[in-house]
């Protein structure tokens, strides 16, 4: 078998066999296939696309290129949640203890962020002492005993995806539904969950900014998951403005804590309740989404979810006093109030621009070597649909560097569209994708 033949076949619109895909993945991972041939094949795939069978075979080959986490020692149905990412997306931090409080084991392998803010692991490390480095035995014991553990992904989890994504990133072949779907799902499948709920974001702050593309990606991933024997559903959700109010690591942790205590922004709370309801459904501890919703709302209102979060923090080495009193979290040097220059309705807040403003402050990573400032970020005071008077505070900018604050302020100003008349507000949830197809709401 030769790479030349695979490139020629796909360039001309042919269908790659499972054997050919396995040959490519193994050869490139082992270093036997050069970058220029791998790039040529990826570009051929980009233009000619892959069918459902090819996409599934590619996902499986990348999944099998490294470690497969075995979670069979954990009692019950393990349900994982994956978000395609966005601005202010701290969902796992609140959602995991909520679901665990309902009796469903949450064994979560997470990553670090490269972009607007840190990833879930970075945000959790805002809590002093919190550790995401866990031996597998400790990880399994924590889930069995407390229903929850969150750890960093092993370096050898789907290594083929890591090197192929790096190549896609520099060869303009990222934006292909099959390549995106296989990249996401190979890691989820290798992480050992029995069932998967996908939160596919769409809007200005999402990877898939077009809603039809988001549904297409969701359907592709749901097919992969179900074909690989995992119950998988996807929710297509709104990322046209930041999720919640806080954008920035410790600021998002504090917002997640407030949500677990029954407060928090309505959009963020509603997303956690909705995703949690579907996770309970896939775990088969409820028969309907409505029953799941009642159960989720109950563990929040009774304080059970917050208690589980405190136990989770203690068991992973975190100082729980910060959870019990969020005023203890380190604060940025200054807080600047961005005032509205107009009177009217906020009809748009460009999520990606808010994210870039937070990145300018130091809340995220521009490169893998970047050091995150856990204290900086942005807290929105007004959201889309709100009426604002000139001079009212739109947002609070938490900063440690005056020059960065000035740059971030200019970016943040441009994120707002304020008009005399109010426009219709987009829903939080656009639809649900299951093995039976797409249901738009």
Structural topology:
Blueprint: H1 3-11, H2 18-29, H3 35-48, H4 52-63, E1 79-83, H5 91-101, E2 106-110, H6 120-124, H7 136-146, E3 148-152, H8 159-170, H9 177-190, E4 195-202, H10 211-227, E5 231-238, E6 246-247, H11 249-260, H12 266-282, H13 289-301, H14 304-315, H15 320-324, E7 334-339, E8 344-349, H16 351-361, E9 377-380, E10 387-388, E11 393-399, H17 402-413, E12 416-419, E13 429-434, E14 437-440
Parallel strand pairs: 1-4, 2-3, 4-5
Antiparallel strand pairs: 5-13, 6-9, 7-11, 8-10, 8-12, 9-11, 13-14
Helix pairs in contact: 1-3, 2-4, 2-8, 4-9, 4-10, 5-11, 5-12, 5-14, 9-10, 12-13, 16-17
Polypeptide structure, described:
The chain has 17 helices and 14 strands. The protein has a 5-stranded mixed beta sheet with strand order 1-4-5-13-14, with helices on both faces. A 4-stranded antiparallel beta sheet has the order 6-9-11-7. It has helices spanning 3-11, 18-29, 35-48, 52-63, 91-101, 120-124, 136-146, 159-170, 177-190, 211-227, 249-260, 266-282, 289-301, 304-315, 320-324, 351-361, 402-413; strands at 79-83, 106-110, 148-152, 195-202, 231-238, 246-247, 334-339, 344-349, 377-380, 387-388, 393-399, 416-419, 429-434, 437-440. It has 3 domains: 1-70 and 159-189, Transferase, Pyrimidine Nucleoside Phosphorylase, Chain C (Transferase, Pyrimidine Nucleoside Phosphorylase, Chain A, domain 3); 79-158 and 190-324 and 430-440, 3-Layer(aba) Sandwich (Pyrimidine Nucleoside Phosphorylase, Chain A, domain 2), CATH 3.40.1030; 331-419, Alpha-Beta Complex (Aldehyde Oxidoreductase, domain 3), CATH 3.90.1170.30. It is globular and about 65 Å long. A hairpin with a 2-residue loop joins strand 13 (429-434) and strand 14 (437-440). Helix 2 (18-29) runs parallel beside helix 4 (52-63) and helix 5 (91-101) runs parallel beside helix 11. With 441 residues, it is of the alpha+beta class. The longest helix has 17 residues, at 211-227.
């Amino acid at each position: 078998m030769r790479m030349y033949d695979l490139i020629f076949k796909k360039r001309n619109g042919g269908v790659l066999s499972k054997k050919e895909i396995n040959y490519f993945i193994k050869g490139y991972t082992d270093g036997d296939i050069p970058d220029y041939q791998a790039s040529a094949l990826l570009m051929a795939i980009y233009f000619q696309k892959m069918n459902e069978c090819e996409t599934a075979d590619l996902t499986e080959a990348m999944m099998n290129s490294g470690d497969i986490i075995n979670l069979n020692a954990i009692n019950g149905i393990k349900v994982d949640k994956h978000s395609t990412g966005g601005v202010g997306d701290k969902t796992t931090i609140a959602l995991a203890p909520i679901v665990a409080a309902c009796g469903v084991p949450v064994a979560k392998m997470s990553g670090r962020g490269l972009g607007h803010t840190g990833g879930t692991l970075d945000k959790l490390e805002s809590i002093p002492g919190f550790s995401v480095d866990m031996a597998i035995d400790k990880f399994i014991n924590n889930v069995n005993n407390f229903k929850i553990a969150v750890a960093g992904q092993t370096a050898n989890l789907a290594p083929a995806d890591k090197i192929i994504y790096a190549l896609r990133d520099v060869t303009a072949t990222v934006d292909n539904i099959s390549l995106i779907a296989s990249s996401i799902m190979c890691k989820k499948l290798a992480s050992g969950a029995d069932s998967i709920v996908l939160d596919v974001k769409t809007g200005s702050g999402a990877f898939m900014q077009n809603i039809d593309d988001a549904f297409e990606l969701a359907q592709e991933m749901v097919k992969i998951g179900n074909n690989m024997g995992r119950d998988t559903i996807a929710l297509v959700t709104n990322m046209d403005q930041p999720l919640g109010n806080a954008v920035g690591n410790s600021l998002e942790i504090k917002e997640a804590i407030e949500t677990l205590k029954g407060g928090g922004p309505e959009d963020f709370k509603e997303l956690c309740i909705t995703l949690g309801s579907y996770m309970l459904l896939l775990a088969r501890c409820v028969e309907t989404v409505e029953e799941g919703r009642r159960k989720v709302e109950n563990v929040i209102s009774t304080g059970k979810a917050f208690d589980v979060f405190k136990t989770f923090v203690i068991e992973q080495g975190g100082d729980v006093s910060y959870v019990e009193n969020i005023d203890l979290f380190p604060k940025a040097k200054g807080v600047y109030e961005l005032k509205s220059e107009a009177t009217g309705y906020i009809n748009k807040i460009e999520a990606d621009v808010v994210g870039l403003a937070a990145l300018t402050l130091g809340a995220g990573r521009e490169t893998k070597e970047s050091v995150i400032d856990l204290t900086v970020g942005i807290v929105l005071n007004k959201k889309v649909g709100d009426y604002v008077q000139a001079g009212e505070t739109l947002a609070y900018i938490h900063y440690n560097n005056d020059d960065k604050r000035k740059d971030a302020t200019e970016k943040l100003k441009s994120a707002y569209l304020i008009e005399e008349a109010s426009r219709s507000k987009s829903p939080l949830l656009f639809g649900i994708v299951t093995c039976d197809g797409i249901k738009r709401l």
